[in-house]
Amino acid sequence: MTGGVTGGATGGAAGGARARAVVVGEALVDVVRTADGRTGEHPGGSPLNVAYGLGRLEHEVHLLTRLGDDERGALLRAHLEAASVRLLPGAVDARPTSVARAEVDEQGRASYEFELEWSVPEPRLPADVDLLHTGSIGAAVAPGADAVLDLVSGLAGTVTTSYDPNVRPAFFASPEDARRRVERFVEAADVVKASDEDLAWLFPGVDPLRIAGQWQRRGPALVVVTRGGEGAVAVADAGTVDVPAPRIEVVDTVGAGDAFMSGLLDALAAHGLLGGAALPALRAVDEPVLRALVATAVRSAALTCRRAGAAPPTRAELDAGELDAPAAQPAG
After folding, report:
1. Which of 1, 35, 177, 237 has a Cα-to-Cα distance from 278 of 20 to 30 A?
2. What whole-number percentage of the chain has pLDDT above 70?
3. What distances in angstroms separate CA 101 from CA 74, 247, 255, 323, one per listed residue?
4. Please, what is the Cα angle at 145 between 18 and 135, to 5 degrees?
5. For residue 110, what pLDDT band results from cuts at 50, 70 and 90?
């Protein structure tokens, strides 16, 4: 296995530095049924969405995952190729491609049931990696999740590591079981993003901002809590910043959290805060930069909510001017 950098992300993408990223986790097909009865199949899985989002933002992205040598696997491969995301060796095998069955309600919110085949291929990473991102089911389901945690822990100090628990309760015996696994990843990561819904399930009745502060003191340089239409709050050594979401016309919220994550990682690259050599600077980030990082991520999520499905913004879209004037409904 190779990894590590001698400096931060290098120049390339129009919006800032171009990072070399590895994303680890599940790739699956969302079978989506909308409130009006329409059904469609779309590429999905939180890590796949983050990889795709980073690819659309013109970073060099490699995905460590598994998918089947079947029609749905071909759909995923074509989707990733469209964003120039490369599959790492061993991704395709004879088992069926995993499926998530999503029901989208009248407010555009999705609930999921999973038919999952998850394991981690032998990691053969490219050289000079700036970023390793993981989360969701791929970091939750043993034994694959154990291998992912070993990978994250083994790269500590040599790359920037990021983690989004994106909690799926069906994959845990209890919130207590989930907390144990989630917090092992939190302690190993440099950047953590979690939704207020994740934290409410993991820690019922506890203020999410309190949990974010506790997590940040346990290791990460940066912990961000997303709050749907209320925006996001970030905690770092420099303090806490609260960034509101723009008011937009929401089509659905599918993939919004993943677009937030890819937008946040893109912003870190733009500020030279990815890579092993950049870890001290990431720890020392000041309040204005912290606010700028979260604002970019919030904008990325809002752009995604304005259209159907997990469709994160392109480089040109994220770099464009302000969103349209306030509309009737906040971003989810």
Report:
1. 1
2. 90
3. 18, 29, 14, 31
4. 40
5. low
pLDDT band at 143 (very low <50, low <70, confident <90, very high): confident
229-270, pLDDT tens digit by residue?
A: 899 999 999 999 999 988 878 767 678 999 999 999 999 999
Contact 165, 195 (CB under 8 A): no
Tokens for 170? 């069906």
What domains, with CATH codes, occur in the chain?
10-330 (3.40.1190.20)
Report the C-alpha gap between 13 and 26 in whole angstroms. 26
Amino acid identity, residue 251?
A: V
Least confident of 41-55, 117-131, 197-211: 117-131
SS (H, E, C) the chain: CCCCCCCCCEECCCCCEECEEEEECCCEEEEEECCCCCEEEEEECHHHHHHHHHHHCCCEEEEECCEECCHHHHHHHHHHHHCCCEECCCCEECCCCEEEEEEECCCCCEEEEEECCCCCCCCCCCCCCCEEEEEHHHHCCCCHHHHHHHHHHHCECCEEEEEECCCCHHHCCCHHHHHHHHHHHHHHCCEEEEEHHHHHHHCCCCCHHHHHHHHHHCCCCEEEEECHHHCEEEEECCEEEEECCCEECCCCCCCHHHHHHHHHHHHHHHCCCCCHHHHHHHHCCCHHHHHHHHHHHHHHHHHHHCCCCCCCCCHHHHHCCCCCCCCCEECC
